[in-house]
Specification:
The structure is a homopentamer. In chain A, a hairpin with a 5-residue loop joins strand 3 and strand 4. Chain A has one domain: EutN/Ccml (OB fold (Dihydrolipoamide Acetyltransferase, E2P)), CATH 2.40.50.220. A five-stranded antiparallel beta sheet of chain A has the order 4-3-1-5-6. Chain A has one helix and six strands. At the D-E interface, strand 5, helix 1 and strand 6 of D face strand 2, strand 4 and helix 1 of E.
Chain lengths: ~80, ~80, ~80, ~80, ~80
């Protein structure tokens, strides 16, 4: 499971019905590469989180019908990206 | 979910039946690496979009039988690729 | 969906039963990295094609039981790899 | 299946219900890139392990409902990372 | 499907029940990056093989319950890695 940092929220007016009312976050790795992820946890900017990808991401989103491939599964208590 | 920019449409006369009448776009990352994606949203060249991959891409295409592994799920309102 | 160029066919005498009588091609990206892919389309060496990966590859092969993870889905009409 | 080294445990107070009481480990490759993985085996820091990813990771966790995409499947008896 | 070279067998005493009595091989790419794969074909060290990944790997292993994500599907008759 990838370990990434929350950067902020994703604003996206035009979207398909299948993602419903999910909250999306922008997450990035330590090199700054960014992806979008659904967030059922309520993570805050700066949090380091671990994420489920693939079909697990849909289960993790709490609803298999939500069309995501990346979901925040938990907030890590302490994390040093360059440990 | 990957965040990519729409470059244009994909013209493909010879194709398997399983992709039906889907609209395909060429999408690229900020380094110029290009992929093909189904587009149920109607994205325009220059738009930054986020995409569902894997089995979610088939649901996102609005028809599980469409044989894609990458589907545009939404157009991002504002996006700075090098933020 | 990846966009790759067909290099030629793959000769493989010793193989598992689950891949049946599929035709396999060698495909490569613009850096020369090569993979094997099933080909239900009849692509020719030099063609640029787009491919379904993951579970979609099995559907795209026309038979879910064919044990592939990469299938040529269509031949692109015109393609400039460095556009 | 990836071959990675166990670094330690992951402490994560705030997490979704779907990961239940799984034990998570931090695993890293020989370049130091780290991921989180469920551990049904009881691996120790320093062990080199191989891991199931994707939907196999959920089966490997002993419960398909555990929302992971990476699970330690076995501890390798002897391993030289730079062999 | 990835094309990799067999390096040898994987010895792993402590492992989960879900991988049963599968034979595992160490496989590597031309840069020396190594992974573990199930082998229902009986490949020998030095052989170049192509492999099914993801859920296809479980079907290819001859038993969907085997918890692998990478399975050798066939031995390539002739292969020049730098062709």
């Amino acid at each position: 499971m990838q370990i990434l940092q929350v950067e902020g929220s994703l604003v996206c007016t035009s979207r398909i019905e299948g993602i419903k009312h999910s909250v999306f976050r922008i997450v990035r790795d330590k090199n700054g590469v960014r992806q979008a992820a659904t967030d059922p946890v309520g993570a805050k900017p700066g949090d380091w989180v671990f994420l489920a990808s693939g079909s697990a991401a849909r289960f993790a989103a709490g609803d298999f019908e939500i069309l995501t491939d990346l979901t925040i599964s938990g907030v890590i208590d302490h994390w040093e990206p360059d440990a």
